[in-house]
């Protein structure tokens, strides 16, 4: 883990590189993604199945794309009872947290006008669940449960199958979360199928869930055809630590994020050079003890940086510049800094709050903005699964009261028909 202090010549450049980490060039993959999108738009199921065979090496028929109820039932027998209990506990806590996010339709009266907003759930949401080097049943829960809490009528899930089939934990998690349809297709072709609709996979209104650069690029290109949640990149964690932090705990938290994949990004910001050096040594010792040592070690060597700054006040400024997905505040009095921290996907406060507790069991959503987008994106929530329709109702008397300024504003903008539509009510 590289340690760099504010007095070092390369400090400013190293920090700027981290701040700009989200500028991912997708130009190299866009042509291939566009080709697949167009093929699925035109060819439907046939194109989806062709790419499934090409990329996932699995031969399917349209009838075999959808996972059957019998397969879901069988998945329960492939996992331990204790694992199913853990998934159900996580689901219950996620539902409880997200129930508190629900908003209702509201209206108020202002003289002769009734104004308000109708809060309406989306009809159909598509959940993309990646395959790859790890399995993420927790992400299934985090993405599907808020949709159900919001009142979404149908949740469709797509995930690559491969020759080994869909991991049973994903099927169990989907069943617990109330997913209505599961399809054994992944990649850009799955995203395209949900966006455009095929004979087998019905079109959705919004697509949520993480994926590799090809999936992320597909979502970006399809925005407008469907809604999307956010542009998610590699997982990341920043730890703010003062002299009171335990270097072993900090190192363990950094490795918790680094083991996701080789592209994961982890940072330490501290006013203590001693703390930075101790954490770096602890990381090197602990990484050797992991089952995913090779992955975590690559992430650490490529992306991990410990920034030593002048003070905790400066440390908070640096954290706000970086705007990390996960921000752990490992200080003596973490709540003292809460109001000054402006940009982070999620905050973990106190020495007994490892990021892992929020990844799995706490309840708040772990689908979070990455790459510095925490400056303007929020954690996935019930609000991502509803849309707002404004409500406007005027009496004749209230329209008469505001007619003259309405007409004046219409003429300022050169829209005579707007003015006449109001005036016609009194002819």
Descriptive account of the structure:
With 427 residues, this protein is α/β, with parallel strands linked by helices. It folds into 3 domains: 2-23 and 233-363, Nitrogenase molybdenum iron protein domain (Rossmann fold); 30-103 and 121-228, Rossmann fold, CATH 3.40.50; 395-426, no CATH class. The chain is 43% helix and 16% strand. The protein contains 16 helices and 14 strands. The protein has helices spanning 11-19, 30-43, 45-55, 69-76, 81-99, 137-150, 168-177, 187-196, 213-222, 247-258, 273-287, 293-303, 312-322, 355-360, 396-412, 416-423; strands at 2-5, 106-110, 113-121, 124-128, 154-158, 181-183, 206-208, 227-228, 236-241, 265-270, 305-308, 326-330, 346-349, 386-394. It has a 6-stranded parallel sheet, sandwiched between helices. The chain has a 5-stranded parallel sheet with strand order 6-5-4-7-8, sandwiched between helices. Strand 5 (154-158), helix 7 and strand 6 (181-183) form a beta-alpha-beta unit. Helix 2 packs across helix 9 (213-222) and helix 6 (137-150) runs parallel beside helix 7 (168-177).
């Amino acid at each position: 883990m590289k340690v760099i202090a504010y007095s070092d010549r390369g400090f400013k450049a190293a920090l700027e590189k981290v701040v700009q980490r989200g500028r991912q060039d997708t130009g190299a993959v866009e042509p291939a993604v566009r080709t697949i999108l167009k093929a699925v738009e035109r060819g439907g199921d046939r194109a989806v199945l062709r790419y499934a065979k090409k990329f996932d090496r699995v031969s399917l028929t349209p009838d075999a794309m959808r996972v059957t109820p019998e397969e879901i039932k069988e998945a329960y027998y492939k996992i331990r009872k204790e694992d199913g209990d853990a998934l159900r506990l996580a689901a219950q806590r996620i539902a409880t947290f997200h129930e508190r996010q629900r908003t209702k339709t509201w209206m108020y009266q202002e003289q002769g006008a009734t104004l308000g907003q109708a809060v309406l759930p989306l009809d159909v949401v598509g959940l993309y669940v990646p395959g790859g080097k790890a399995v993420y049943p927790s992400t299934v829960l985090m993405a599907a449960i808020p949709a159900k809490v919001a009142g979404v009528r149908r949740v469709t899930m797509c995930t690559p199958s491969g020759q080994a089939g869909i991991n049973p934990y994903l099927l169990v998690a989907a069943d617990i979360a109330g997913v209505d349809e599961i399809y054994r297709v992944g990649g850009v072709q799955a995203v395209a199928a949900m966006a455009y609709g095929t004979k087998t996979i019905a079109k959705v209104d919004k697509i949520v869930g993480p994926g590799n650069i090809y999936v992320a690029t597909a979502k970006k290109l399809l925005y407008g055809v469907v809604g999307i949640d956010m542009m998610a990149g590699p997982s990341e964690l920043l730890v703010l630590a003062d002299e009171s932090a335990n270097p072993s705990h900090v190192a363990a938290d950094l490795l918790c994020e680094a083991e996701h994949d080789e592209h994961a990004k982890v940072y330490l910001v501290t006013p203590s050079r001693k703390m930075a050096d101790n954490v770096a040594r602890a990381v090197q010792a602990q990484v050797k003890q992991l089952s995913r040592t090779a992955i975590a070690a690559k992430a650490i060597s490529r992306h991990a940086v410990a920034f030593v700054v002048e003070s905790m006040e400066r440390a908070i400024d640096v954290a706000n510049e970086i705007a990390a997905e996960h921000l752990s505040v490992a200080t003596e009095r973490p709540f003292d800094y809460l109001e000054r921290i402006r940009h982070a996907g999620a905050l973990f406060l106190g020495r007994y709050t490892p990021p892992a507790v929020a990844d799995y069991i706490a309840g708040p959503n772990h689908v979070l903005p990455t790459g510095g987008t925490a400056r303007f994106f929020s954690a996935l929530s019930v609000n991502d699964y509803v849309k707002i329709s404004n409500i406007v109702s005027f009496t004749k008397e209230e329209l008469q009261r505001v007619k003259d300024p309405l007409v004046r504003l219409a003429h300022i903008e050169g829209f005579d028909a707007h003015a006449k539509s109001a005036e016609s009510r009194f002819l």
